[in-house]
Amino acid sequence: MRPAWFAFGQTNSTGEYKLLRILEDLEDGYEADPVCEVFAIGDMNGRWRKMESPPGYLDPSCTNGVVFEGAAYFFLDHWQMDPSYYFATGCIPSFDLATEQWSTALQGPVNRILEEANGTLNYADLTDRLMLAQLEGTLCTAHFNDRISAVDLWFLVDFENGMWSKEYRINVEFAFDGFGDGVQPLLVTDEGNVVLWVQIGSKGMVWIYNPVTNTSSEIVQTMASIFTGVGKWKKCKKKRSKTDVRTVD
């Protein structure tokens, strides 16, 4: 029952595939730094190589890293962030798959979210309420605000300056209760609709949001634990393609 995080992707320089895993460890009965390991696909030695630990405790609800332009991005656990002393408040740590080094250069939209909240939210309120994704060729942060029952989607528009733009606010009419509840954006269709995975306790649903009519509808519903993983599968045949959504429990 110890949290674990995974990421799989290609390096920008050589196109080599690598698998990254981060596992919580116990040392003499006490929590130690998470163990970070890398496995290079095609490595003749076939072994995990230990790397430097992440620069902070990762959010347990962000179970996987999002790979964007050769680096895997994760959320820090905002519940443990104190702006008075924490060095990386608001940053999104990343692991470069080519250099195999950690970085805290990218600033997330956390400060913008808190500014817009006008004092109704703090860092602890963001715990288990943020989810990373890659949409429309860039990083996306989904923020579920249970105070107003809405999901805001923030898109990274300027990496160097850490600038994010809020492109969608999706109203939700259902209540979220219990650990593991959240919203994960999956894709934006060619028609501009947003497909979301919604987790409510032991129930999981695929929803589609139409920004033109500002309405949402359920596509499919299934029983799913809080450890359910969601991904996209795209089948290409000549000039035709099909996109499907698969879940793994």
Termini separation comes to 15 Å
Q: What's the β-strand tally?
A: 20
Contiguous uncertain segments of 5+ residues: none
Helix content: under 10%
SS strand fraction = over 45%
Biggest sheet, spatial arrangement of strands? 1-2-5-6
Shape call: globular
H/I helix tally: 1
Mean pLDDT: 81
> What is the string of helix and strand elements?
EEEEEEEEEEHEEEEEEEEEE
Main sheet makeup: 4 strands, antiparallel
SS-based class: mainly beta
> If you compute it from the alpha carbons, what radius of gyration comes out, rounded to the nearest whole angstrom?
18 Å
Present the secondary structure layout.
Blueprint: E1 4-10, E2 17-23, E3 26-27, E4 30-31, E5 35-40, E6 49-51, E7 66-68, E8 71-73, E9 94-96, E10 102-103, H1 110-117, E11 130-135, E12 138-145, E13 150-158, E14 163-171, E15 182-188, E16 194-200, E17 203-210, E18 215-223, E19 229-237, E20 240-248
Antiparallel strand pairs: 1-2, 2-5, 3-4, 5-6, 7-8, 8-9, 9-10, 11-12, 12-13, 13-14, 15-16, 16-17, 17-18, 19-20
